[in-house]
From TrEMBL:
Signal peptide range: none
Top-level taxon in the UniProt lineage: Eukaryota
Full protein name: 19731_t:CDS:1
Pfam families, per database record: RT_RNaseH_2
Ranges where the Reverse transcriptase/retrotransposon-derived protein RNase H-like domain occurs: 72-165
Amino acid sequence: MDKIFSDLKNKFILVYLDNITIYSKTFEEHLEYLKELAFLGHIISENGIAPDLSKIDKVQNYPVPSNLTELQRFIDILKEKLTTAPILQYPDFENLFILFTDTSYQGLCAILAQKNGNNNEHVIVYASRSLNFAEINYSPTEIECLAAVWGMKYFRPYIYMKPFDLITDHSALR
């Protein structure tokens, strides 16, 4: 915690182990300090979790391979989605969760999302991991199935004993 809040320590935050105390001179100043917090490359506020604007430039200027049109299109979409606030929303356990999974020959990814009141999908959390040496030898269908099972296990605290939609682009799993 000391490292995370080092730039704010003794300005309006005291840190002791895993405890944080926020102090201020006036009640209004105190409410201002609590409105939003920069944390691990994100801004946390009452509206959700958004990207820290100082980090967005690195994502937008990331070099894109020019020989694969589909990959370039994907990266462009990814740039747009990762730099449009709010990125992450708080989960609403009364609404249906949507689990998106996808794979490559190098790794798995899973995205847990929900639809908001306007019927727009909002991401709750992202997850990914590399394939191990045995998994690299799986067939495409086995890897896609692995991603679905891994995503369900990973997001179990959110989806356990609740209906949810699983979305995959692999036709054999539909």
